[in-house]
Amino acid sequence: MTKFMMFFIAMGLxxxxxxxxxxxxxxxxxxxxxxxxxxxxxENTPSTEQSGLQDSAEDAAKNEGELSVQDTxxxxxxxxxxxxxxxxxxxxxxxxxxxxFIDNDNLKQYTQKKIESQYAVHVKNKQTDKVQNIEIGxxxxxxxxxxxxxxxxxxxxxxxHMDVGSxxxxxxxxxxNANGKLVIVDWYTGAKDSYDFTVxxxxxxxxxxxxxxxxxWVKSVSFLTEM
Length: 227
Hints:
Order of helices and strands: HHHEEEEEHH
Strand content: 15-25%
Largest sheet: 5 strands, antiparallel
Radius of gyration: 32 Å
Distance between the termini: 113 Å
Shape: globular
Number of helices: 5
Number of strands: 5
Structural class: alpha+beta
């Protein structure tokens, strides 16, 4: 009788131990699954944050306090976007956000007037072709140091593809670093009979990044454009 009682007690202990082990394994499995889910969620968060940072850091200078040749690619990409938006504005009537590219109010007003004037001419002459896309050719860049932190000169040839046919122009840009963000400080397209050609004159030398801060010069341009 005693032997049987001891046997049943021993079996009971084994069963209890197995039951506790099963519960422990179940709890461990739940904890493992919970940790795995937490890890997946954490991996998704950085990509979302990174996307936001990329948007806010668009056209940011390599060094917040200065401009250098290292900013060439960013400056080019900014000017390329500006050209794409510009040609779609003057032909398609699309909205262009000049604040994204230009910091100087005088240049901003002039560019807005330039866009409105050209679009009005196209509408008046019933030129209904729309810009489909633009194609940029071999472009040039030059860095110049000065007391204001230096500037980049870019010469960008572009082919504008319309609904039917295409045409080409060359645009010159001057770019500075304004508080860590690259901005266009001058912008000239010198094609014959173009708006800049007519208002600013032909064969202009684009090398003065402070020209739109020259009040007397701006007055002369304002007189011609009614800015």
